[in-house]
Suppressor of tumorigenicity 14 protein homolog (Synaphobranchus kaupii), 844 residues
Amino acid sequence: MDPMDSGMQYSPRAPADWDLSDQFLPASDSKKLEKTRLTGKVGVGIGLMVFAAVLALVTGLLVWHLHVRRAEKIKKLYSGSMKINNMRFQEGYEDPNSPVFRDLAAEVVQQLKIIYLDNPRLSKYYKNSSVQAFSEGLDENKESIIAYYLSEFKVSQGQESVVDSDMTKNEPMTSKAGRLLNQEKFVNMVSGAVDSRLTKTTFEKMYKYSYHAHSGENNTLQSPGFPDTPYPPNAFAEWELRADPGFRIRLDFIKFNLEENCRKDFVKVYDSLAAIEMKVMAEKCGHYAPNEPLTFISSENVMLLTLVTNKDKNFPGFRAKFTQIPQDLECGGKLIGLNGTFQSPDYPSYYPPSITCVWNIQVPIEKYVKVQFNKFYLAEPGASPRVCPKDYVEINKVKLCGVKLQNTVVSSKSNTMRVTFNSDASFVDQGFTAEFQAFEPSDPCPATFQCFNNLCINPSLKCDGYDDCGDNSDERNCTCGKTQITCKNSLCKPKMWQCDGVNDCGDNTDEEYCGGCKADEFTCLNERCVSGTKKCDGRDDCGDDSDELDCESVSVVSCTANTYKCKNNQCINKLNPECDHEEDCEDGSDEATCVCGKKPYRSSRIVGGQDAQEGEWPWQVSLHIAGKGHVCGASVINDRWIVTAAHCVQDRDIKYSLPGVWDVYLGLHNQQVIGKMTELRKLKRIIPHPDYDAYTFDNDIALMELESPVPLSNNIWPICLPTASYSFPVGTNVWITGWGATREAGFLAQVLQKAEVRIINSTVCGKLMSEEITPQMLCAGVLSGGVDACQGDSGGPLSFLGNNSRYYLAGVVSWGDGCARRNKAGIYTRVTKFRSWIKKTTGV
Ligand SMILES: *[C@@H]1O[C@H](CO)[C@@H](O)[C@H](O)[C@H]1NC(C)=O
Ligand SMILES: *[C@@H]1O[C@H](CO)[C@@H](O)[C@H](O)[C@H]1NC(C)=O
Ligand SMILES: *[C@@H]1O[C@H](CO)[C@@H](O)[C@H](O)[C@H]1NC(C)=O
Ligand SMILES: *[C@@H]1O[C@H](CO)[C@@H](O)[C@H](O)[C@H]1NC(C)=O
Ligand SMILES: *[C@@H]1O[C@H](CO)[C@@H](O)[C@H](O)[C@H]1NC(C)=O
Ligand SMILES: *[C@@H]1O[C@H](CO)[C@@H](O)[C@H](O)[C@H]1NC(C)=O
Ligand SMILES: [Ca+2]
């Protein structure tokens, strides 16, 4: 049996990838090393290149050994740094080819050898070391240099953890080192195992860049090929970034578009010039929106950026700015007064590692202080948010860490408060923003309601059925209103959540007496109940075939309104078969056109709030009328057609039915900012649904054809149209978006708003609205989001995130209260009912 298959610990590649032809990097590959000069003081090192080539050779031989003989020794690489005291840094130390570099490197390698040979657990496995770089030490009065090195060991199988633990250290060298060591000169050794993904032997391209930033300069760097070509496959790139002594590096990604899966392509940022895991600041992949902060600040004057790519799916890559900024950041201090704000250093940039800030808050003598954290991102892999062993905020002797999506309040029992922020050497995050306020001890929440967790909220939010405190304390001891259900546990919940299959009361009160089917029965799409044994028995027992959908095996069935029709006119019995990565139709047409409905950017961390992120809803359209501005929303369904509501294009004061009166803005985010990504189009024609009923709002849908196609982009992208059989069950969560324009009033918000809503049971909705809900309509109510804000626009999209990670246009905003507000149901045009009309009219 191949020893690779059995319990080998060090296996950086899957067995299938162990192709010997890949293992040896030809010497000529070193030509691919890109040399870049940025300023006068740039050093380009090829040390790592040579090292990598040799590493490839060594590992190749190792692999050969493993295949041909029995595995014996495993190669392990460790990177580290140490300080060399009483030495002055010179320019030559930035250039690995200079004589001063080589001399000092030899001395460091000699010292490392002494240290390792002095340790009996290490000495037998030690191979050799090399110095990667030097930088200035930052002692106040002593001159010193920091050396960054790699050490190589060949470890017997099973002994790796012993060597790992001896090599993972963060301490003065003197404690472990023997008497031979020059204890005065070489100090502060930090080292650890190198991330094996950074030393893979299958890299085909290696790049090394070395830059030195200076004050007043704006420098940029980018991944190989950016922006003209995607980054190369199987590549390793690293950027050594330096600043003058006494400064920090600020690295700011302007564009960042890598493969979504960090196991394949990723970037790592280190607070060092060596890839020491104890000093890693972040690992990133995926696609970040341009307005998403992705800025890193070093603790000293160096930073290392690395990029690793695998063999397939190459993405555009990144571009970043870097500058040197003074060591002194705004961090801590005295805060005096009745109120004020403070934040982690350079928020919303990622805070630097190894920093401590202390704020001493003092309010007038007879008052108490409370601090409210509004944004709080102190997440760190592997750190328990209960004990906060790594980065934390300490206040009233309590440590806070992790991510807090709900505002957090801490109050004192005196007129002073001390807040400490501490970051350790590895992993950084965006940090926090906070405000402090003085309060009368007898009245912590003047004119507002005080939650158990000390948050003060608007009293109108008490007993409205929504948990605004975050601990439900605003929903206790309430008398339920007319539009509310009184749960048995005495909570009040909006009546619109009745009979939707979601237990909102917590004790199921809202889901009792809904009729519905018995436990052993199947609920048909037409709400009939049939015996559970009739499901998938090959016979239509529901009358609409829904008991024969979604069965184990996909088969061709006779066509009904609930079946999916393939291009070849055969119908299949799978629910939502399109674009689920499985070809269900014989002709593959269910997977043929799957470009719609994907958001370009990785979902943002900033999930709360009502403001959408730029590019978050790229199918959202803003329809303007000259002199009135934004009046309706619409959705992009391809590069020429958009969908809106028929009631938006009915003649009233203005002839809204004329294509010429409309200005169509696509890729718009802020109504006040027509950005580079925004496209303006006129209309060629408007096609309202022929059966639109202006009295009942039945069939409230219209199509608009653009005068010329728009280029699709990160900010303009079509949403998927659900097929007639697509199911949006009651209780499903969907999103509405818009600037808040209603039939009655103009737009309210500048920035695109979003709110999560839930599909309401149509029977319940009809009773609440005292109006008929036709089969062409669907109801939804606001789950989260604004209090007074009006979210969504007439004609705008109701977006549903399908199981295949694509968004589907479930509805078009039609009528109701005009816009989505708490406790008010909104009525939407049910798009599934119009799929064939859209197809017939537009070809989409
Ligand atoms: C170890 O020595 C070989 C040459 O024998 C060299 O190519 C390799 O880069 C060295 N390893 C390190 C970590 O410096
Ligand atoms: C660097 O960029 C900043 C902000 O973008 C700008 O204000 C400054 O003038 C730039 N400096 C140089 C030297 O280009
Ligand atoms: C903060 O204090 C000032 C007076 O110092 C007051 O005018 C202001 O309204 C306060 N702000 C808040 C948010 O309480
Ligand atoms: C509700 O009432 C009970 C008893 O009357 C009281 O103990 C509790 O503090 C009240 N809760 C809230 C949130 O007002
Ligand atoms: C909707 O509510 C009615 C009772 O008001 C119930 O009979 C019906 O089953 C519910 N529909 C769904 C899909 O839950
Ligand atoms: C999504 O689809 C997969 C495969 O069809 C299925 O196993 C899974 O249960 C579905 N998930 C949801 C949430 O519907
Ligand atoms: Ca940290």
About this structure: The helical segments are 20-23, 47-68, 99-117, 120-123, 160-167, 762-769, 835-842. The first helix runs from residue 20 to 23. The chain is about 10% helix and 30% strand.
